Amino acid sequence: MGIEKFLFYFFAAILLVAATLVITVRNPVRAALSLVLAFFASAALWMLLEAEFLALVLVLVYVGAVMVLFLFVVMMIDIDLAQVKEGFSRMLPAGIAVAVGLVVVMAVVVGPEHFGLEGFGEVPRHGADYNNTRELGMALFTTFVYPFELAALILLVAIVAAIALTLRRRPGTRHQNPAEQVAVNAAERVRVVKMAAEPRDDAPVPTAEPGESKEEPR
Amino acid sequence: MNLPGTQDYLAALPEIVVATLACIVLLIDLWSNDRERLLTWLATQFTLLVGIVLIIVQLSTDVTYAFAGTYVKDILSDVLKLFIFIGAGVAFLYMREYLRIHNEMKGEYFTLGLFAVLGMMVLASASHMITLYLGLELLSLSLYALVAMRRDSAQSAEAAMKYFMLGAIASGMLLYGMSMIYGATGSLDLREVADAVAQARSDDLILIFGLVFIVAGIAFKLGAVPFHMWAPDVYQGAPTAVTLFLATVPKLAAFAMLMRLLVDGLGPLHDQWQGMLIILAVLSMAIGNLVAIAQENIRRMLAYSTISHVGFLLLGVLSGTDQGYAAALFYTVVYMIMGLGAFGVLVMLGRAGFEADRLSDIKGLNQRSPWLAGVMLVMMFSMAGVPPFLGFWAKFAVLQEVVAVGLVWLAVAAVVFSIIGAFYYLRIVKLIYFDEAEEQAPIRGSSPMRVMVSSNGLVVLLFGLFPAPLLGICIAVFTRIELVIG
Fold it and tell me: ipTM of the assembly?
């Protein structure tokens, strides 16, 4: 077994374990971290295919930006695990049946009989002066310029949708005005107000008589 | 190297212009202080008008590939885009009326709608799986956002979430199928895929495996049984203005997707996908028509009715002949017109904070507004397939082609299910004409809205009496006869 084959199986095993962990661990933060591991492993697989640019971008964009953001979200929202798991056991038999069926069919089709190594030629190897990034850029801006622009439009729609769904103009919300904050002087910061002393107001709040507000006036 | 040249840009001019104008509409909406969003709306309609003009100017039966084979301009794409523009224009008019009635006017309804139209255009002239997928995502993403636009309604949020989740799964399936096809043929260009498939063994397991996933993905997007679960909840949960848009016009895009992937790309596998489509069609017609009977909510009922119409659409495509495809296109266009009309009437029945979508809301409509009742009567008779309305000719054309390829049992099943389906359409008619009105609120509506709903009803009636022009266009698309419009 060559070193390359060993590396492939090594990273493929890590990828499979990490992917399984993503959907099986109970803690959402651990699930997100497992996903990070899965991304690292698949980046290594891409590296083996000499797709260096894609491998690096996967680490930079997905691990560095997307997953970190995702972790923030997961940590900030309070996920009720009991509620998430509700109906799990009820759905389990059907889920297992579908999953087993899919796996069997896929094993038949995506097995070595159809996707064996002899059916596909060696991955073409390039010399040290081959520039992955340049080739990718050339393809994106010539042959695939139309899909490339469409992808840009999809991002634009995502921005518009995100803003339209989250931006709220509530009356009475207070905003900071940095210009005013910077221009403030000492006299404006603290205002000393003289006022007469008042009695403490900690008498209990009178509660409604029981039954008083139950009936609607007719 | 494949640097795009002038002829590439010229071929894709409608897409480029609509994309540019959509961005301008976005800016107009940002700077306009108008609460009624009249300027945004006018700019949106202007964009659609410009699109129509550009298509008609360039209308020809020539097939032009552009951008290194990722874009195709042929008569099918031209005609589909024309219908998409017209349908979207009418939908935006109804949408504006609805938003005004409910005091929810927001410019994003129109800008996102415009981007959805752009996504449909991309789908209509995709000749590469990457383009097709990106067009689909552009369309779907805009629709997800539109469904979620009513932020404070839990029902809308639930609908949007369901739509988004199931849509994402469907996209995943489609991508998986495409990757299998790529593995078997070595190309994503639909022309090259067709060549490779024609040379491959017909029992190539990888191809069929990929085909299964692609058909499942398309069926999700069309809302065909057993991939229909999202449709009723989304139709009911979204604001009616959004429902009327997403239930009608994108069906044309889904039809385009069917044609491009299954016929243009995987045409040589017709024997294989015909069987799959037969299952989808029969189940859709059966479940759609039977479950619709049990619905108390009109929008839910229309959702199931849509599912049964999708079954009919699939009947036309699965026949595998040019006449069959023409019949399916005709059916899709007719369904769009009928759907727009029915939802248009529902929009007019609503008032601020109140959606008229229960069956009891429509009782005695004839006493409140005989004209609107008449329009609804036309729509329901047409959907049920009663002659001489337009829906009859659509069903007739499809059934004729199914019989022509020898699938008589399928045609019989389709007739049986549409007779069952006629029950709930006629129940609406009965509620309108023979029941006492429970709701007494006067029916208002701006004059453009009245004119549009009325002409929508008239179109169904007139084209029902003289279906030749509309049917002729659809047949000309597939028989490549020189087409003259106007």
Answer: 0.92
